[in-house]
Q: What sequence folds into this?
C-alpha cells in the first residue's frame, strides 16, 4: 500500500491504534521498498526513512516504468508523536527485486536493480551534502547473473553486502559515475566480490531469515545475522578494511516446517505456530544457562572454523545464551 502507520508500543492503552506517518495512497503511489537509518548521535529518536515508490498500476517486478525515491527525516514533535519531513526525492530507473532492494546508510542510498539486458547492477545515490536537490550516482556491476535473493546492505565505508540463499558476498564501493537513465556501456567490467562466505541453502519449506545491519562506531564494525534453518551466523564486518570479516556460527536442531526464527542484530526469537512459548536468545554477554531452555531452543554448540582460501574467519567469542522464555497467549 501507499500508507505508512506507526504504533506506540509503550502506550498504556490496551488497544494500540496506528497513527498516520506518511500517506501516498491518495497520490496513486504505492510503497515498493523501504529502509531506515537511525541517527545514533541524536538525543532523542531521529531517523532517515527511504521509500521506493511505484504507481499502483505498475506494481510488478518486471515493469520497466521508472520508480520514485523519497527520503524523509523523522523525529519526535512537541506532542510526543512522530513527524516526517521530506528532505529529498528523485527518479530511479529500472526494476528492483521484492526483498530488501534498498539500503540507507548516512548520506547514501544503495539500490539493487537490473540493467536493460537483465543483468544485476548496484547504484549508490549520494543524496545529502551536495547542495539543494542535487544527487550523484555511482555504479557497480557485480559478477553473476542473479540479484541477491535476500537483499543488500550498505556499509558506512561504501562497501556492499549481498545476501544470497547460499552465500554472503562483500563488494568494494562503487566508483563509476553514472547519470540516471543513461545507457550502460557493454565494456564495463563486472566486478568479483572481495570476500565470500558460503553456507547450505535452506530447504524448500524453510526461509532464510536476515536481521538489519547495525553499525557500532566505537568498535568500527557493522554487524548483522542470518539463519538457514539449522545454523545461525552472526557477521561482524570491520570498516578499517584491513581486518577480515568475522562470522560466529551456532548450530541448531533442524527447524521443522512452519517454525521460524525472528532475528535482531544481537538476539533472536524462536517459535512455532501452536507452541505456547517462545525463546529469546542473545549473542551478547554470558548469562546463566538453563538446560531445559537450551533443549527447547534447539541449540547444539558453537563452532570455530577458518577458511584461509576465502579469507573466512569464524570465531566463537560470543556464545549464544538463553535469556528467558516468554508465554505466547
A:
Amino acid at each position: 500500500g501507499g500508507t505508512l502507520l506507526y504504533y506506540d508500543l509503550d502506550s498504556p492503552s490496551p488497544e494500540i491504534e496506528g497513527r498516520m506517518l506518511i500517506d501516498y495512497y491518495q497520490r496513486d503511489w504505492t510503497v515498493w521498498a523501504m529502509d531506515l537509518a537511525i541517527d545514533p548521535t541524536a538525543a532523542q529518536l531521529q531517523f532517515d526513512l527511504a521509500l521506493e515508490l511505484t504507481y499502483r498500476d505498475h506494481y510488478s517486478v518486471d515493469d520497466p516504468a521508472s520508480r520514485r525515491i523519497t527520503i524523509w527525516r523523522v523525529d519526535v514533535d512537541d506532542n510526543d508523536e512522530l513527524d516526517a519531513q521530506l528532505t529529498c526525492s528523485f527518479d530511479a530507473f529500472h526494476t528492483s527485486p521484492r526483498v530488501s532492494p534498498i539500503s540507507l546508510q548516512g548520506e547514501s542510498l544503495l539500490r539493487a536493480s537490473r540493467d536493460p539486458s537483465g543483468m544485476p547492477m548496484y547504484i549508490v545515490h549520494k543524496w545529502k551534502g551536495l547542495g539543494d536537490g542535487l544527487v550523484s550516482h555511482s555504479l557497480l556491476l557485480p559478477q553473476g547473473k542473479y540479484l541477491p535473493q535476500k537483499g543488500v546492505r550498505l556499509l558506512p565505508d561504501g562497501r556492499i553486502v549481498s545476501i544470497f540463499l547460499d552465500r554472503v558476498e562483500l563488494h568494494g564501493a562503487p566508483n563509476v559515475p553514472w547519470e540516471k537513465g543513461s545507457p550502460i556501456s557493454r565494456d564495463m567490467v563486472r566486478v568479483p566480490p572481495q570476500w565470500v562466505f558460503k553456507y547450505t541453502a535452506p530447504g524448500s519449506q524453510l526461509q532464510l531469515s536476515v536481521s538489519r545491519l547495525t553499525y557500532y562506531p566505537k568498535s568500527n564494525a557493522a554487524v548483522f545475522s542470518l539463519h538457514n534453518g539449522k545454523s545461525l551466523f552472526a557477521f561482524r564486518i570491520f570498516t578499517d578494511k584491513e581486518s577480515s570479516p568475522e562470522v560466529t556460527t551456532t548450530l541448531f536442531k533442524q527447524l521443522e516446517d512452519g517454525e521460524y526464527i525472528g532475528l535482531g542484530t544481537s538476539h533472536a526469537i524462536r517459535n512455532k505456530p501452536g507452541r505456547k512459548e517462545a525463546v529469546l536468545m542473545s549473542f551478547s554477554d554470558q548469562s546463566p544457562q538453563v538446560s531445559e531452555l537450551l533443549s527447547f531452543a534447539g541449540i547444539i554448540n558453537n563452532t570455530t572454523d577458518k577458511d584461509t582460501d576465502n579469507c573466512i574467519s569464524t570465531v566463537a567469542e560470543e556464545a549464544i545464551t538463553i535469556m528467558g522464555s516468554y508465554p505466547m497467549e
User: Anything to note?
Assistant: Helices lie at 291-297.
